[in-house]
Amino acid sequence: MPWEKNEAAGGETSGRDARIAARAREENWKKPPRRIESAECITCDSCLRGCPAEFGAIFDRGLDVVIIPELCSGCPACVLECPVDCIYVDEDWTPTDESLWKHIELTADGA
Ligand code: SF4
Ligand code: SF4
């Protein structure tokens, strides 16, 4: 996998770019991704700011804030930031749809 080489070299941002390109989670991530319950979320963006840059898994789409499971390691720094505790483990996550990947590609560093 190309991103394994990047991680070994300390290129964590490259790892995120590779995940975006592959649209896939790291195979060695043991924890499931997280998801935001939109009915409870107050769209404060605290989680977005708390998600480590090497993951950059959270996006504010205007009407809601979402976690991209393919980019989320499940670390879970965002959970500590959320004032309303609406970020849950998502064992049954589904692949991110094409339109959202297009948006992510437009905002990705160095993509
Ligand atoms: S669990 Fe970690 S990687 Fe996933 S969205 Fe939260 S802070 Fe980001
Ligand atoms: S920190 Fe919690 S309430 Fe704020 S945007 Fe993130 S999920 Fe929503």
UniProtKB/TrEMBL annotation:
4Fe-4S ferredoxin-type domain: residues covered: 32-61, 63-92
A Pfam family matched in the record: Fer4_4
Gene3D superfamilies, sorted: 3.30.70.20
SUPFAM superfamilies in the cross-refs: 4Fe-4S ferredoxins
PROSITE patterns, A to Z: 4FE4S_FER_1, 4FE4S_FER_2
InterPro entries in the record: 4Fe4S_Fe-S-bd (IPR017896), 4Fe4S_Fe_S_CS (IPR017900)
The protein's name in its UniProt record: 4Fe-4S ferredoxin
Species lineage: Bacteria, Bacillati, Actinomycetota, Actinomycetes, Kitasatosporales
